[in-house]
Amino acid sequence: MARPRQFDEQDAVVRATELFWRRGYHATSVRDLGDELKLTPSSLYRTFTDKHTLFLRALDHYRATESAQAERLLAADSRPIRQVLRDWMLWLVTCPPDGEPGRGCFVVNTATELGTTDDQVSQRTEAAFEVTRQALRSLLLQGRRKGELSADLDVDAAVELLFTTVLGLRVRERAGHDLARLATAIDVAIRALGPTPTTPC
Fold first, then answer.
1. What is the spatial distance between Cα 171 and Cα 201, in angstroms, rounded to a whole number?
2. Which residues are CB-contacts of 40 (< 8 A; sequence separation ≥ 6)?
3. Among residues 89, 91, 74, which one has the least CA distance to residue 190?
4. Over the range 89-117, which residues count as b (16 or more CB within 10 Å of their CB) and which as e?
5. How far apart are CA 62 and CA 78, in angstroms?
6. Of 46, 71, 133, 149, which sees the most CB atoms within 10 A?
7. Is there a contact between 93 and 169 (Cβ–Cβ < 8 Å)?
8. 126-133 LR contacts (CB < 8 Å, sep 24+)
9. What is the per-residue DSSP string for 18-31?
10. Can you tell me the distance from the alpha carbon of 163 to that of 160, in angstroms, rounded to the nearest whole number?
């Protein structure tokens, strides 16, 4: 008869996510994971198969939480579109009071570390990036419909500009760059959307 597991598997994934996020894939050993999760190597392999499989589950967990939160923050509400964008982009680079500075985004960190060398990882990072692109596109289209953005705005090009800015911001946040400078970059990117159309008298 199989012995019942003495740990919460989902909690183990959450803790593994934190460790991979802090250290990266290559710098995190099976021993590190065992210490963090309080599992022997044999128990870890029996539950998660291998480090790579656990890493994929960590990415999935992160995407289901952090990426979904970003999508919610980008949803248009009663605020002006530009304010929604600015608040979201500042949120990306502002460490919460109980958080660790300089961790950046787990997805961006992973894409930077592993690039396109791992198909399963690439599929997950690209899926997360696409969620952000689509949320940006939805917000900009909403801005055009509300008359806050020019009807001539090239939404696809604007999405790529903002998305590229976001990736740069996450890397700079991880590098510990000054928040005031990042806020300046945010403001310039938003101004690139053009002036607010004037309402005819």
1. 45
2. 34
3. 89
4. beebbeeeeeeeeeebbbbbbbbbebeee
5. 28
6. 149
7. yes
8. 127/63, 128/63, 128/67, 129/163, 131/63, 131/67, 131/68, 131/70, 131/71, 132/67, 132/70, 132/71, 132/74, 132/163, 132/166, 133/159, 133/163
9. HHHHHH-STT--HH
10. 5
Question: Are 28 and 90 within 8 A, CB to CB?
Answer: no
At 88-100, the pLDDT tens digits run: 999 888 865 555 6
| Residue carrying the six token digits 């005819």 | 200
Query: What distance in Å separates the CA atoms of residue 157 and residue 101, rounded to the nearest whole number?
Result: 31
Q: Letter for the amino acid at 26? A: H
The helix or strand, by DSSP H or E, that contains position 46, with its residue range, turns out to be: helix 41-48
Tens-digit pLDDT profile for residues 162-193: 999 999 999 999 898 999 999 999 999 999 99
Q: Determine phi and psi for 152, rounding to 5 degrees.
A: -90, 0
Q: Angle, to 10 degrees, between the axis of helix 155-174 and the axis of helix 119-145?
A: 120
